[in-house]
Amino acid sequence: MYPIAFYIGSFAVHWYGIFIGIGFLASFCLLLKLRKYAGLTTDQIYNISMIALFAGVIGARTFYVVQFWDQFEGRGILAILNVHEGGLVFYGGFILAFIAECLYAKWPTVRQRLGLKEKKPADGSEPRKDISILALLDILGPAMALAHAFGRISCFMQGCCFGRPAPNGFPLAVRFPAGSAAAYRYPSILTGGSEPVFPVQLFESAGNILMCIVLLLLLRKRKYAGTIGGIYLILYGVMRFLIEFMRGDHTDFFLGLTPSQLIAAVIAIPGGIIVYLTAREKKSEEGPADA
After folding, report:
1. Which range of residues forms the domain containing residue 85?
2. In 3D, which of 206, 232, 207 has the Cα closest to residue 219?
3. How many CB atoms lie within 10 A of CB 206?
4. Reduced to 3 states, what is the DSSP secondary structure of residue 9?
5. Domain assignment present for 262
6. Mean pLDDT of the chain
7. Distance between alpha carbon 78 and the CA centroid of its chain, in Å?
8. What is residue 8's predicted lDDT score, i.e. its pLDDT?
9. CA 107 vs CA 55, 104, 166, 260: distances in Å
């Protein structure tokens, strides 16, 4: 755990912000490579990336502040705005970014239904048409997995989202130093830091990288829009549900499950529906098998 990378004068630059920035740049470059699968222009990828960045950070921070309000009560607005010091919840960012991306994808139709006048492009080209949300999800899936992989590394460096104590002799267990949240929750009398805990942040980072690779391989063979996005939702939902059993920072449970496990289950359901519908469409087009 090394939260501070370096100082610029008296201003501390945290690894948390650095890895979040690297994750955004990596996902942006990947989206540029994948834009052909959704029929998007470079400008549209730029807009989509900016929307995902700002909506994602706002949603993730809002979710964190609401969930851990006791950390901010009485500290003022600046404490809430210090995102570079850590404190983002993936699901909050995912939900708000998804809503914002859907609005952007269908903005021409939204404008029309709201009775807003459509501005003609200055270069004389045709006005933008709706973007397929399913095709957009297909390229956002691997990009989000890549960005999330770097995000979890930032969590490890910051010391948040830590795991529960690992069994004795577990070779991948880590100790967080004194003063960390893990040391406060699981103190070690011998070292003053934490007990050996699961490095769940790194486990999830590795899982996201593997997921990104799998999705990219499947995307090359995709026949129906939405398949890759649906698979991403299923894979991430299952992975997050399982990893949560090793998390040690949660204090609230419902029916023996963490809030993140409940959300993971909810996210996986629409993914399964999308994959099922696309598979059924493929089967109907192929027709009945010969007798």
Report:
1. 4-120+127-163+198-222
2. 232
3. 14
4. coil
5. no
6. 86
7. 25
8. 87
9. 16, 5, 49, 31
DSSP state of 70: G
Half-sphere exposure of 216 (CA within 13 A, CB side): 17
* Pairing, β 11-14 against β 4-8: antiparallel
Residue with tokens 């003022």: 76
For the record, the structure tokens of 204 come out as: 């999830």
Contact 155, 243 (CB under 8 A): no
Q: What is the pLDDT of residue 291?
A: 35
Beta bridge partners of 11: 8
- Could you tell me which residues come within 8 angstroms of residue 185 by beta carbon, excluding any fewer than 6 positions away? 162, 194, 248, 249
What distance in Å separates the CA atoms of residue 101 and residue 81, rounded to the nearest whole number?
A: 23
Whether 206 is in a domain gets the answer yes
The answer to the question of residue 255 being in a domain is no
CB 181 within 8 A of CB 162: yes
DSSP 130: P
Q: Can you list the residues of the chain whose pLDDT is less than 70?
A: 1, 76, 84-86, 118-127, 281-291
Tell me the two tokens of residue 192: 């003053």
Please give the pLDDT value at position 289.
Answer: 46
Q: Determine the 3-state secondary structure of 5 from DSSP.
A: strand
**Number of domains forming the structure of the chain:** 1
* Residues 89-108: tens digit of each pLDDT: 887 888 899 999 999 998 77
- For helices 200-219 and 133-158, the axis angle rounded to 10 degrees is 160
In a domain, residue 110? The reply is yes
pTM as predicted: 0.85
The beta-carbon contacts of 66-70 under 8 Å, at least 24 apart in sequence, are: 67/259
Task: Please tell me the predicted confidence (pLDDT) of residue 24.
Answer: 94
Structural contact between residues 214 and 147, judged by C-beta atoms closer than 8 angstroms: no
For residue 194, the cross-strand partners are 187
pLDDT at position 208 = 97
pLDDT for the residue numbered 7? 84
* Token duo for residue 275: 């994959």
